[in-house]
Each structure stands twice: as structure tokens, then as C-alpha cells.
Design a protein that fits this description.
Number of domains: 6
Strand content: 15-25%
Oligomer: single chain
Number of strands: 45
Radius of gyration: 36 Å
Shape: globular
Largest sheet: 9 strands, antiparallel
């Protein structure tokens, strides 16, 4: 009997060995076809998953075999399943038969920053891809007792999506679901499964109420790369997604080859786009029609014969000769009108008219609307187009004039795409390396490398660099000459190298096209006097959210981009927290290693916990849920922005954006409860928002709060382990399983398996790495959270990110009106009427880093990790070269305002000559703006608004020589948190002083600080606390492990460098 159906990839799938990037192809790889292996066979496949079979050494067993053994405690009956076929459907292939590229990196345990040469890359089949599945069973074997019922039970696990295939099962890959099309009778009684069989699935959600940013690996620009490199016009055309697809395809055929220069290609685009549009519009408007024509000879014959027409009728009809009429009715009407009182002779004329069928053009309104909407053309142009439709040259001329205003937008996309050529230099390095490998293998195939040369690292073949030869031999050090010279192996290896090169090139093109989309480009100033803020002067955001290609019927065999959080990111975040906690409580002990490896795995050993990817519950949420933020480093000496150090971020924000993922734990044992109690504590930490995911953690991103939405527990028996996990609960019979499902509050509070974690008291001092810096590998010293209230003392303005919300034109140019920063989209049209105003986390971080730099006298730059100055050691540092970065031990939230009052202000510029001295403003023409410095660092003195600043009732500009800003008025308050961990006592004392200052002191923040804006006082609130980690995980109540911070105990002026100078510079007596 053969059972047929479809196997659906609920997550991406990777099948290949640990050293390969490409998904393993069928045969020699030439056709680039893929499948999921039916049976373990051959040396290479013995290391990879298959549905059935067993390797010679018995180490690798088929997945169905494993599932059967797990459920029933017995091996899969020999000969029961004779064949399994699982071929990817033709519709699930992209056109080039290459799929998605998933990349990941490893974070160093001490630095909590990326580790060099520890990343991975895998070609993964698309999520939602469909395989044709066929399983052949031996009918005779099915007759044995319980065999049919047991097979039904195994297939039911596949139907329920509790089956994983391929690599990366514990980090989001390989989950599949079977839809069986062949009817398989349900057994009268379910099979008996062994008492130890069970499966726990937790469904967890989190929203973007706290911003989260899991950065995509693509689009990082290398400034060392030439500004223009070879590129094909086809890529530029494909990036113009606002063009209708047929027009894009035609353009690609005409101008899709290699381009000489960007300017040359733009000129060709301007020439060929109107012509291509004209041809397409004429084709869509073409139709065959019947025409009636009266020829002059035919009319002359009507004047002769037995019943001739009168000369008067002939003369009246003569002007209509050789004129085409669209059908009999039109001809009749024309001749009746021409003949007047002789109209009764029209029938005689119609009888001799010629009937012709010919092509004609009548404007296709639907095609025109599609083109007009896509390009933004004026709909009223329809009448002119209809009139010119029969003349391609005239139609092209009309379209050329209409398209001309659109060309700058298309040119922008060209420039952006070319800019992206500078990015992702690692791809070129990978391709160069693989091309060298390909050259060596070709020489082997040609017999030009002998066995003695193969065994000599210093005898590089002719034309092969010595370094490339040594690298190749190092990577193949376990491969004997006889094996690599096997014709079949060598041929397949060469094909794999060619496929690898083609795959990287193709995926980079797809990624670049996605990055160049208008909504991924930031707004920057340009144009006359740098006053126009537009995407046409922008570039792709430095960091956008992680995305992958998924299969969907509407993606036209290209794959559709979807944002997600990789399972590897979630697993890594949970593992990092577990490692920090356990190494704090249990030390670097065998017990710690055992629990970590059991839960999360180790090299060659899969962890017991499977983390899925986190996908958006609604992937089609509107663009208004995406926010942008600028980050500009300020020169500490001048307080001016360093434009080359500007970074922009595009991130999701809001409760409406909900991500969902699953945590699966098959076959829990009572002996594992201590390890899984650790997992329960981690989930509780995630619910509290203490496990950050993604990047930019120190800028407040990623500290999301998870919620357990559903708990599903399947078990063979309802007692024993079930009672220890969930107490006295009633389970429902579901086939061979007994099921417990908890939702809502019952699920959120259902972690009864959370047992206390006891161990050593956390160290009084932070852990140190071998290089001497404070490490992130465990907790020690002081950890906790400062809850801060920011009180606005003078009008405060921090410009919104992206496009200005207000703009107008005056006689002397464009004038922009800047609203205060809000959690809002970059594009003004997408912003809500009511905004959530906030202090950007990076602004808070930059403010306090600057004060801490002065207070710690951190004047000397840090030369390397072993010699960090005080501010770099605390706030984080990035040096030159690999493994020369460390994450800070502080994180700053966004400071959200609660219904602040705002007003418009006009500040003419430049405002040179204005100084505040002797408690009053003075103007001395031509005098430069004074700079108050403490040592070599600039600080702005507090002062009331300068006389040149005018408060306005609304955005009503009267000159372009002024700045118009909407500022938050004094009295408004914003609240934010500062998390800290592993601080030394002096570091915490200095930090608290830098935040709270002293009663007569305050900070300066935002724009126009010199003329009185931006005075802010920060209050450390009583909710601030230190965390007693030992009590926290030992089961103490929250008020016991949170030790309140008494501000007076921590304000120690003796740890503050330049104390008296700071007291003078930060004094607010003038306000």
C-alpha cells in the first residue's frame, strides 16, 4: 500500500553537513533539485537525516525509526516501510532553484559581542514550501498485532506538526506537517505507548511595546569598497518594483546588460522607459475590428447599368470614398446624412462597400490606470493617449513628457542600488575563496596535481596562490588523494562549488533589491541650502529588521520577504541568561555544564529544548507600526554632530505587533526536573522582560516581556510526572495520548515545575576576564535598575526622526517644521494624529556618557580591551580588528512622556554674537558662540531663552533663515529605566551622581542648548532597586530580593573628577 500526501514546511529546512552552506542537492547537483531523503544510504547521507534506515555503524537512525522507538519502546518492524519519497513540488522552486540564506553568529561569553570567524551560513528551503510525500508499506506486515494502529499513531504525529527534519532542530528549523491524501482508517483502539513518552509545547508571545531590533545581516557598507563597481542593469530594473511587471521584464531585456556608468544607464532608462510603456500600452489596447470602405471604382460602377444612380447621388457620396467606417451601422449613418433627401439610395451603396478585418487600437482603461497608479502619472492624460494610440512615436512622445517628472524617483532607486554594491564585501571574499577551490579541483580533474604534491603544503599548483593552496589542504586534511580523485566525487564537488558561487551572487542580488525599496531608505537633507529633506538624498537604513524568504502562491516563484526573529536568536538569549545565572549560583562547575548542555546542547549533542522562530501573528500590519530613530555621535569637545558617525534604525513598535513562537520539549523525565526548573525560571525572567533579544540592547531594544499563551501537555499517563508539573488536573483522551491544554491565566501561571535554585552567594565584586576587563559571563558586584523621572525645566526639543511633519514654501525657499521625537514612522503621512512623544534612548545614553566621561576623567582613548578607560569599560567600546568590542553594562530605555504640552518656537540663525553672562543675555555683533569647557569637554550652561527666540501660536514661518521647532514645555515629565549589572561600588556611585546630580544642578539635552533650550532635571525614584540574585532564584518574594536604593547613601562627590567645575557648569540658578 502506498500512502500519499503533502509535507508542508512549517519552518525553513536545512539538510547538509556542518561544513556546507548549500542544501544538499539530488544526484550530482547539476539540476539543483532537492528532496528530503527517504532512507539513509551512502557515506555522506549516513551523517544526515532520512525518514527510515540506519547507518552501518548504527549511530544514525531514520527519523521514523526514532519516533517509533520513542513512542512504543520497540524498533520499527523490519520491512514495514519499504520506501519513502519526498520531492519538493515544482511550484515551490524559485526560478533559479536557489532558496534563502540563513546566517547567524556566536557571541563571546565575556564580551557579549560577536566572535570573529564563528558565524554560520545555511541555505534553507522556504517556509511554507510543499513536498510531494509518498510512503510505501508492506501490507503483510500491517496485519501483525497493533502494527497498523502504531503506524497510524506515528503518522498522526506528523499530521500534528510534532516532527522535525534536518539540521538546526533546536533553533527554529525543520518542523514539518503532513497532510495525508490517501485515506488511512483510524484504528478501533489507539495503540499503547510506553509510559515515559510525553511532549510539552509552550506557545509564547511578545509584542513590540518595548522596541525590538533583530538586525539583518545584509546591507552593511564597506567604505573601502570603490564607489562604483560592475553591475548589471537587470538588477537596477528589478529594484523598481513600482513599475508593472511586464514593463520591468521588457526593460530588463533592453537595458539589462552590464552598465558603463550610472549616468549613462540613467540616460538609457529615460530613453527606453517611455518607449517600453508605449509598446506595452498599445499591446494591451490592441483589438481586431471590421471596417467598411467605399472604393471610387465601385461607386463609378453604380452610375452605369440597367438601374444607375443619379449623378447627384454620385456627387454626394464621392467625398466619403476610401474612408474607413467601424462597421455597417457607422457607414449607414454617414451616407444617410450625406445623401440627405436621397438617403433611400444608401442601401445600394452599402451593397458594394468592401468589408475588411484589421487591427485597431482602443485605449485599455484598466491598463492605463495600472500604469498611472504605479508611476504616479496624471489620470487626465487618458484623452491625449487615446488620440495618439495609433501612432507609436506620438504615443511615446506623450508618455515621455508625462514620465519626465517621475525619473528622479527612479534615478534615486538606481543610486541606492549602486550604493549597495559597496556592501557585504564578505560575499566577494567567499566567492574568491570558492573560485580558488574550484580552480584546484579542476586541476585535479585534469590530472595536473599528483599525490606527492597533494601531500606537500608548500607546492602550490601553477596559478594558485600559496595561501589558497594551504587553506584548501587544511580544509581537506582528512581527505585522502584517492578519495578526492574519484571521478564521481570530484564532479559533484565541482558542481557544488559552482552552485555555491551562483547561490551567493543570486541571494545578494535579492537582498539588495529588498534593501533598496523606498520604505527601507532614510530621509536626509539635500537640495538648495540643504533644506529639502527627502528619501532621494537618503540611503538604506544602517539596521533594518531580520527577514527571510518564504514561499507563497503570489510570490511568482521568487519568494516573499517576511520579518521574523530566528529561533537561534531566542535560544541564544535564553542560553546566555541561563549561563549567567548558573555560573553565578553554581560556579564554573560540572553541574552547570551538564544542565546547560542538556537544555541547549553542545557540539555533536542536540539540546532537549526546541525553540522555533518567532513570526508575526499578523505579518501584514501597516507601515505605521514601523518607527525610525537617528543616532549621531557628538564630538565631546565641540558638542557638534559627527556626520560620518550617523546611524539610523528602522524598528517595529507597538502592542499591535505581536510575535509568536513555540518551545517544544519531547520526553521529559523526572530526573530532568532540576534542569527544566532552570528553564521555568528563564521563562519567568522572559515574562519580566529580563532576557533581551536582538541587537542594540544597551539602547533599550529587545527587553520585551513574554506571555505564555498556551500550554499543551501530551502524556501516556495522567499521574506521576503530570502531577509534579501541573498538580491535580483533568486530562482528556486524544488518540494514544492524554492531553492537558492550558490557556490564558492558567497558562501564564502554570509553571508549577519552578523549583528554587540555590547555590553560592553571588560574588561581591564583578567577574573579570583573563584580559582584565569586567566580564558578562556571570553576575557579581552590583546589579539592579534605576527608575528615573525626567523633569523639563526649559523648552526642550529633540527632532523627530525621518521626514519633518510640517513643511511649506516661502519666498526665500523651503521651510521645515520639526515636531518633537515620537515613536512614529519616518514618513510624515503615516504618522498618527496623536503621537507618543519620547526621549530617545540614545539621547539619554549619550547625555549620561558625556557627563560620566568628565566625572571619571576618561580623557585617554582605550588602546585595547585590556586597557579600557572608565567610560568605555562601563558604556561599551568598539576598537579596531577582530574581537575588539565589548558590550556595556548599562541599558537605557526610551523616556515616554505622559500628555506633555508643546509649543512652536522660532530661532533665527546663525545666532552668533549672543552670550549669557551676569544673569542676562547680551549681543556683541560678530562674536563667536562661546564654548564653556570642563577640561577639554564642552558643556552648555543653563540660561533662560535668548531674546531672539520667539514663541509662535502655530507653524507660521515668515523666513527660511530660521529654525522652526515644536518643543515640550517646562513641567512635562518623562519616565525611563536604566538597567545595570556587574558594577563596582565606585562605578555605581559615579553613575548615580551623574544621573541625579545635586539639588541645584541639572542636565542639558537636545537642540538649541546655547540659546536656552534643553534644561532637564533627572530624579532617581524610590522604586529604584538593587537585585539580590541569590534570593531571587531561591524563591524569595519580590520585595525581598529587590533592595531599595537610598539615594543619599550613594551620592559620593569624592568619586567625581572635576567636581567643582561640574557644579558650576550644571548649576540652574539662572532659571
Amino acid at each position: 500500500m502506498q500512502l500519499r500526501g503533502q509535507l508542508i514546511a512549517e519552518t525553513p529546512i536545512f539538510r547538509g553537513n556542518a561544513r556546507k552552506t548549500l542544501f544538499t542537492r539530488d544526484g550530482d547537483g547539476t539540476q539543483r533539485l532537492v528532496s528530503l531523503a527517504g532512507e539513509i544510504a551512502g557515506t555522506a547521507q549516513a551523517l544526515m537525516d532520512a525518514f527510515i534506515g540506519q547507518s552501518r555503524d548504527g549511530r544514525n537512525i531514520g527519523l521514523v525509526n526514532q519516533l517509533w522507538q520513542r513512542l512504543y519502546g520497540e524498533p520499527l518492524p523490519a520491512g514495514l516501510i519499504t520506501r519513502v519519497e519526498c520531492q519538493l513540488q515544482k511550484e515551490s522552486y524559485p526560478r533559479d532553484h536557489f532558496f534563502d540564506l540563513r546566517m547567524g553568529l556566536r557571541l563571546d561569553e565575556d564580551r557579549w559581542a560577536a566572535e570573529a570567524n564563528a558565524n554560520y551560513k545555511m541555505e534553507t528551503l522556504y517556509r511554507n514550501a510543499i513536498f510531494d510525500f509518498a510512503l510505501t508499506v508492506n501490507d503483510a506486515a500491517m496485519q501483525k498485532e497493533q502494527t497498523a494502529a502504531r503506524l497510524y499513531g506515528v503518522l498522526q504525529e506528523l499530521r500534528e506538526g510534532r516532527f522535525w527534519f534536518g539540521a538546526g532542530k533546536s533553533k527554529g528549523l525543520g518542523r514539518v506537517r503532513l497532510e495525508l491524501q490517501t485515506p488511512l482508517p483510524q484504528p478501533a483502539a489507539p495503540p499503547t505507548i510506553q509510559s515515559s513518552a510525553n511532549h510539552l509545547r509552550l506557545t509564547i508571545t511578545f509584542n513590540a511595546r518595548n522596541p525590538v531590533l533583530v538586525g539583518w545581516n545584509w546591507g552593511k557598507v564597506d567604505p573601502e569598497t570603490p564607489s562604483f563597481a560592475a553591475i548589471e542593469g537587470r538588477l537596477l530594473v528589478e529594484a523598481m518594483r513600482d513599475l508593472p511587471e511586464p514593463i520591468r521584464n521588457r526593460l530588463a531585456m533592453v537595458i539589462g546588460g552590464p552598465i558603463l556608468s550610472p549616468q549613462d544607464w540613467k540616460q538609457r532608462l529615460a530613453e527606453y522607459l517611455p518607449r517600453t510603456c508605449a509598446v506595452w500600452l498599445r499591446e494591451r489596447s490592441a483589438a481586431e475590428a471590421e471596417t467598411w470602405v467605399l472604393r471610387a471604382p465601385a461607386l463609378a460602377r453604380l452610375a452605369k447599368g440597367k438601374y444607375p444612380l443619379s449623378q447627384k447621388v454620385i456627387d454626394l457620396a464621392q467625398p466619403l470614398c476610401d474612408r474607413s467606417f467601424p462597421g455597417e451601422d457607422a457607414a449607414r449613418a454617414a451616407f444617410e446624412q450625406a445623401l440627405g433627401d436621397k438617403a433611400n439610395q444608401t442601401k445600394r451603396i452599402l451593397e458594394v462597400m468592401e468589408r475588411q478585418r484589421a487591427a485597431s487600437h482602443q485605449l485599455n482603461s484598466a491598463a492605463w490606470v495600472e500604469m498611472a497608479n504605479a508611476l504616479g502619472l496624471e489620470p487626465a492624460l487618458e484623452a491625449r493617449l487615446a488620440a495618439a494610440l495609433d501612432d507609436e512615436a506620438a504615443l511615446t512622445q506623450v508618455l515621455a513628457g508625462a514620465i519626465k517628472p517621475v525619473l528622479p524617483r527612479l534615478y534615486l532607486q538606481v543610486d541606492q542600488q549602486i550604493t549597495l554594491i559597496q556592501s557585504d564585501a564578505w560575499v566577494d571574499a567567499e566567492i574568491t575563496n570558492r573560485e580558488q577551490h574550484l580552480k584546484i579541483k579542476t586541476l585535479l580533474q585534469q590530472g595536473k596535481i599528483s599525490e606527492p604534491q597533494w601531500n606537500d603544503r608548500n607546492r602550490a599548483p601553477e596559478g594558485v596562490p600559496a595561501a589558497a593552496w594551504r587553506t584548501f589542504l587544511d580544509e581537506h586534511r582528512r581527505v585522502r588523494y584517492q578519495h578526492i580523485m574519484h571521478p564521481g566525487n570530484l564532479r559533484k564537488s565541482i558542481t557544488n562549488d559552482r552552485n555555491f558561487i551562483a547561490f551567493l551572487q543570486a541571494h545578494r542580488e535579492r537582498a539588495r533589491v529588498e534593501l533598496a525599496q523606498p520604505h527601507h531608505v532614510d530621509f536626509r537633507a539635500g537640495g538648495p541650502f540643504n533644506r529639502e529633506v527627502s528619501r532621494k538624498y537618503g540611503k538604506p537604513y544602517d539596521t533594518i529588521f531580520m527577514r527571510m524568504l518564504t514561499w507563497s502562491p503570489s510570490s511568482r516563484q521568487e519568494g516573499a520577504w517576511e520579518i521574523f526573529v530566528p529561533g537561534s536568536t531566542l535560544k541564544g538569549a535564553f542560553r546566555k541568561r541561563a549561563s549567567q545565572v548558573l555560573k553565578t549560583l553554581w560556579g564554573e562547575s560540572p553541574k552547570t555544564t551538564k544542565v546547560l548542555e542538556h537544555l541547549f546542547g553542545a557540539q555533536g549533542h542536540r539540546g532537549a529544548v526546541f525553540f522555533s522562530d518567532a513570526y508575526l501573528v499578523d505579518p501584514h500590519k501597516p507601515e505605521r507600526n514601523w518607527c525610525s530613530m537617528d543616532g549621531v555621535r557628538m564630538d565631546p569637545q565641540t558638542a557638534r554632530p559627527v556626520e560620518t558617525a550617523k546611524h539610523d534604525y528602522l524598528f517595529p513598535y507597538g502592542e499591535e505587533l505581536v510575535f509568536k513562537f513555540q518551545v517544544d520539549i519531547p520526553d521529559l523525565r523526572e530526573s530532568d526536573l532540576e534542569a527544566f526548573s532552570v528553564l521555568a525560571h528563564l521563562i519567568q525572567d522572559f515574562q519580566r522582560g529580563d532576557i533581551p533579544i536582538g541587537g542594540e540592547k544597551t539602547s533599550g531594544f529587545g527587553w520585551v516581556k513574554g506571555q505564555i499563551g498556551e500550554v499543551n501537555w501530551l502524556t501516556a499517563t495522567a499521574d506521576g510526572l503530570t502531577k509534579k508539573l501541573f498538580g491535580d488536573q483533568t486530562l482528556a483522551r486524544e488518540g494514544m495520548w492524554q492531553r492537558l491544554t492550558l490557556t490564558g491565566d492558567a497558562a501564564a501561571n502554570g509553571l508549577r515545575w519552578l523549583a528554587p535554585l540555590t547555590g553560592a552567594k553571588p560574588a561581591a565584586t564583578p567577574p573579570k576576564a583573563q584580559a582584565g576587563y569586567i566580564s558578562h559571563r556571570a553576575f557579581g558586584g552590583y546589579s539592579g535598575k534605576l527608575i528615573v523621572d525626567a523633569e523639563v525645566l526649559s523648552p526642550l526639543h529633540i527632532a523627530e526622526s525621518g521626514e519633518p511633519s510640517f513643511k511649506t514654501k516661502t519666498a526665500d525657499g523651503v521651510v521645515n517644521g520639526w515636531d518633537f521625537f515620537a515613536m512614529a514612522p519616518a514618513e510624515a503621512a503615516l504618522r498618527a494624529e496623536t503621537k507618543l512623544y519620547a526621549l530617545p534612548s540614545r539621547s539619554i545614553k549619550g547625555l549620561l556618557r558625556h557627563i560620566y566621561t568628565i566625572a571619571s576623567d576618561a580623557a585617554a582613548p582605550s588602546p585595547d580591551l585590556s586597557r579600557l578607560n572608565p567610560v568605555d569599560a562601563l558604556f561599551g567600546w568598539v576598537g579596531q580588528g577582530p574581537n575588539q568590542a565589548i558590550m556595556g553594562r548599562l541599558t537605557f530605555d526610551f523616556g515616554l512622556f505622559d500628555k506633555p504640552e508643546l509649543a512652536w518656537f522660532k530661532s533665527p540663525y546663525p545666532y552668533t554674537g549672543w552670550t549669557f553672562a551676569g544673569d542676562k543675555w547680551q549681543h556683541q555683533s560678530g562674536r563667536a558662540v562661546p564654548m564653556h569647557r570642563v577640561a577639554n569637554w564642552r558643556l552648555f550652561l543653563h540660561a533662560p531663552l535668548a531674546p531672539i527666540v520667539k514663541r509662535l501660536d502655530d507653524f507660521l514661518p515668515d523666513t527660511a533663515q530660521a529654525s522652526y521647532v515644536r518643543a515640550i514645555l517646562p513641567g512635562a515629565r518623562a519616565r525611563f529605566a536604566i538597567r545595570f549589572w556587574n558594577l563596582e561600588e565606585k562605578e555605581l556611585q559615579r553613575l548615580i551622581w551623574c544621573v541625579a546630580l545635586e539639588p541645584q544642578l541639572a542636565h542639558k539635552l537636545g537642540k538649541h542648548r546655547h540659546i536656552g533650550f534643553g534644561s532637564v532635571r533627572l530624579h532617581v525614584l524610590p522604586e529604584s532597586s538593587l537585585t539580590r540574585l541569590g534570593e531571587r532564584y531561591a524563591g524569595a518574594a519580590e520585595q525581598q530580593w529587590q533592595q531599595p536604593i537610598t539615594l543619599a547613601d550613594w551620592l559620593k562627590p569624592q568619586v567625581i573628577a572635576h567636581y567643582s567645575e561640574l557644579q558650576t557648569a550644571l548649576n540652574v540658578k539662572s532659571l
